[in-house]
Amino acid sequence: MEEILVDENGYKQFFEELKKLEELSLSNSSLGSEAYKDAIGDGWHDNFAFEESMRESRAIASRIDDLLAKQQYLKIVDDSDKKEDLVNIGDKVNINIKYSDDDMENEVVTLTGKYIPNTDNEANEISLNSPLGKVLYKAKIGTSVSYSVGDSDVYITILKKITD
């Protein structure tokens, strides 16, 4: 597994997510225990609430295991030496994306050091760890870069930084 690049906030976010999942696991265990205790008979036969609690517990445990495995690969990026002509964490940039000769888009994206980027489409956040984020980070404004997705190449032209 390769490094997972985050800024200070992304590092904190990672551990907040882990703590939230651990708390959810404890809460779910209580619900499962109640469902087991309230059931007629031996507690687990034909007990949908208990079965659902067990499925949820396994899903949460899997997510916790995943985060714990990734923890050793977290790397906080030192972005203190920002250069105006390079794409830095937090920069909003206007880019042209060329998927093929007849499939091109112009986008405004923000490079983020968060562990989990904002899912709000208006924010258009791109993680440092995404293929696009990896080629944008520290790339020179005005240059073209590319990355591969499967067997296709995507070409990016970094047009300009946008300041609000």
Layout of SSEs?
Elements: E1 4-6, H1 8-38, H2 48-71, E2 74-76, E3 92-100, E4 103-112, E5 125-127, H3 131-136, E6 144-149, E7 152-162
Parallel strand pairs: 1-2, 4-5
Antiparallel strand pairs: 3-4, 3-7, 6-7
Task: Please explain how this structure is put together.
With 164 residues, the protein is α/β, with parallel strands linked by helices. The chain folds into 2 domains: 4-76, Orthogonal Bundle (Helix Hairpins), CATH 1.10.287.180; 92-162, Chitinase A, domain 3 (Roll), CATH 3.10.50. Helices cover 37% and strands 27% of the residues. The strands form 2 sheets. The protein has a 5-stranded mixed sheet. The chain has a two-stranded parallel sheet with strand order 1-2. β6 (144-149) and β7 form a beta hairpin. α1 (8-38) runs antiparallel to α2 (48-71). The model has no long low-confidence stretch (mean pLDDT 85).
Assign the CATH class of the largest domain. Mainly Alpha
> Class by helix and strand content?
alpha/beta
Placed side by side, the strands forming the largest sheet appear as 5-4-3-7-6
- Poorly predicted segments: none
Helix content: 25-40%
Give the overall form: elongated
What's the N-to-C terminus distance?
A: 37 Å
CATH topology of the largest domain, by name, is Helix Hairpins
In N-to-C order, the SSE pattern is EHHEEEEHEE
In total, the number of domains comes to 2
Radius of gyration from the CA trace?
22 Å
CATH architecture of the largest domain: Orthogonal Bundle
- The helix count comes to 3
| Whole-number mean pLDDT | 85
Q: Per DSSP, what share of the residues sits in E-state strands of 2 or more residues? A: 25-35%
- CATH superfamily (homologous) name of the largest domain: Transcription elongation factor, GreA/GreB, N-terminal domain
Question: What does the main sheet amount to?
Answer: 5 strands, mixed
Please count the beta strands (DSSP E, at least 2 residues each). Answer: 7
